[in-house]
Design a protein that fits this description.
This protein is an alpha/beta fold. The strands form six sheets. Strands 3-2-1-15-5-4 form a six-stranded mixed sheet, covered by helices on one side. A five-stranded parallel sheet has the order 11-10-12-13-14. The chain has a three-stranded parallel sheet with strand order 16-17-18, covered by helices on one side. The radius of gyration is 27 Å and the shape is globular. The model has no long low-confidence stretch (mean pLDDT 89). Strand 17, helix 12 and strand 18 form a beta-alpha-beta unit. Helix 5 runs parallel beside helix 6 and helix 11 packs parallel to helix 12. It has twelve helices and 20 strands.
Length: 472
């Protein structure tokens, strides 16, 4: 595959760069490691200073018949852009004009051509994990929709949190979910361990798992088996073989067969030594004594990853990295604010999902934990920025406007009932119409601005809420 440009990261910057290039006739590959485009912007219902979504401002102006025309939030298509979701850049070499990229595509285990979005799979899934789209405030099943409104919008399976009950597979009315049961008989496993009990455990635990299994007791037998049979996909190798050291065993195995997944089995005393072999061809280390409840799910997931991950190669004249950012965890750098401990202390992103129509409370403004209406709200600015003693010297340049926008949203959602206060160091409104937006929030909507830093957040024993002490 040859492209004019490879854009790594499908957030707002990656979409903008891809569209600008595509409109000039350039062929673009746009990749993102997530299963939906838009990055953090997809979680925000409004953007300042217009209080609209804002992504429509990037809609193409030229190739209108062959591209997205209405809402980039719901999806991106353009005749000159190939979108690859669930895809990461794992290697890059070459030079300007001739880059060679290796990509790894993560499977969804759901056929987008068969999935009708009925939700039957999610309804029967027993797993519950924090929902990234709702900033961890709500729970989602392992099979889920990455974003609620993208088009096309098929379900995906989160393999790391899948409990292997296969309930979603059985419930799917169209057969869209594929756990590759039909080819498990081709996934041959070799276990090398001098302890006969280990082999007995593997044979007992895997008798219903379809995988072909061979167990040998020493290194010599293992090498003979590999030299005579080149169809093994996975080797589980004990660290303490009687006839060969791990170094010798690994080097001989790699000489005989490249591409095998090598996994070391080690007791607690040898875990560190086993980890040192990761850079010499070992892909994973599992701890002995082995337990069925952990080994069998691990083996299932290892099989699915090996059989389903795809590596793609492409050439590109240029590469644009739009990697985006991650939000700060206040519990790590500012524990005195009570984040993660006191109910009602949330981050700006969590607040966005609280007031969103597709969020936790479907547009109502409630206090997490108590589910009571939130009517007195304070925004504490510069948490995690402008902190020289933490090595975080700089202003983020976006948080001031972010807090003003959220205070305005709180006023609208509560029909003016919410008391909103922004505690700030300096107010940065460095953008077109940004100062007018701030003035309107204060003079017309009643948002209060207090220039000071709150030292800490405490529990109010009388009301059961939160208390802030500050000097005005």
């Amino acid at each position: 595959m040859k492209y004019t440009a490879l854009v790594v990261g499908g957030g707002i910057a990656g979409i903008r760069a891809s569209l600008d290039l595509a409109e000039t006739g350039s062929k673009v590959a746009l990749i993102d490691r997530n299963q939906n485009l838009g990055g953090i912007l997809t979680q925000l219902d409004r953007q300042f200073p217009s209080d609209r979504c804002g992504m429509c401002r990037m809609l193409p102006l030229v190739e209108r018949d062959e591209c997205s025309q209405y809402c980039l939030r719901k999806g991106l298509y353009h005749e000159n852009i190939d979108v690859m979701l669930g895809t990461e850049l794992i290697a890059l070499d070459g030079e300007l004009g001739e880059f060679h990229a290796t990509l790894r595509k993560k499977p969804t285990f759901v056929d987008p051509n068969l999935c009708i979005g009925c939700g039957e799979c999610a309804a029967v899934c027993p797993a519950r994990v924090p929902d990234e789209f709702n900033a961890g405030l709500s729970l989602r099943p392992a099979v889920h929709l990455p974003a609620p409104y993208t088009i096309p919008n098929h379900y995906v399976v989160d393999l790391d949190n899948c409990q292997r009950c296969w309930a979603c597979f059985k419930a799917c009315p169209t057969g869209a979910i594929d756990f590759r049961f039909e080819v498990r008989a081709d996934f041959k496993i070799l276990v090398v361990d001098s302890d006969p009990k280990t082999g007995q455990k593997f044979e007992e635990w895997l008798k219903d798992e379809i995988f072909p299994l061979t167990v040998v007791r020493n290194g010599a037998e293992a090498l003979t088996e590999l030299s005579e049979n080149d169809t093994y996909r996975l080797i589980l190798l004990d660290m303490n073989l009687p006839d060969m050291t791990p170094e010798d065993m690994l080097s001989r195995i790699l000489e005989l067969q490249l591409g095998l997944r090598l996994v070391l089995m080690a007791g607690p005393e040898n875990i560190q030594a086993a980890q040192n072999f990761i850079e010499f061809g070992v892909q994973d280390v599992i701890t002995k004594p082995l337990e069925e409840k952990t080994l069998v799910p691990w083996l299932d997931k290892t099989y699915l990853k090996l059989e389903s991950h795809q590596e793609l190669a492409l050439e590109a004249g240029s590469v644009i990295l739009t990697a985006g950012f991650e939000c700060l965890n206040p519990a790590e750098l500012a524990p005195f604010y009570g984040y993660g401990v006191l109910p009602g202390v949330v981050t700006a992103m969590e607040f966005e999902r609280m007031v969103s129509g597709t969020g936790l409370y479907t547009g109502e403004l409630l206090i997490p934990g108590s589910e009571k209406p939130a009517r007195r709200i304070a925004w504490l600015q510069c948490v995690g920025s402008r902190e020289p003693h933490l090595g975080l010297d700089f202003c983020s340049s976006v948080c001031c406007m972010f807090s003003i926008k959220e205070a305005v949203m709180a006023k609208e959602v509560t029909h003016g009932q919410a008391e909103t206060v922004i505690f700030y160091m300096d107010m940065r409104t460095s953008g077109k119409n940004f100062q007018q937006y701030r003035d309107r929030a204060e003079k017309e909507l009643g948002v209060r601005f207090l220039r000071c830093r709150v030292h800490s957040v405490m529990r109010d024993t009388e009301s059961g809420g939160l208390k802030l002490d500050y000097i005005d």
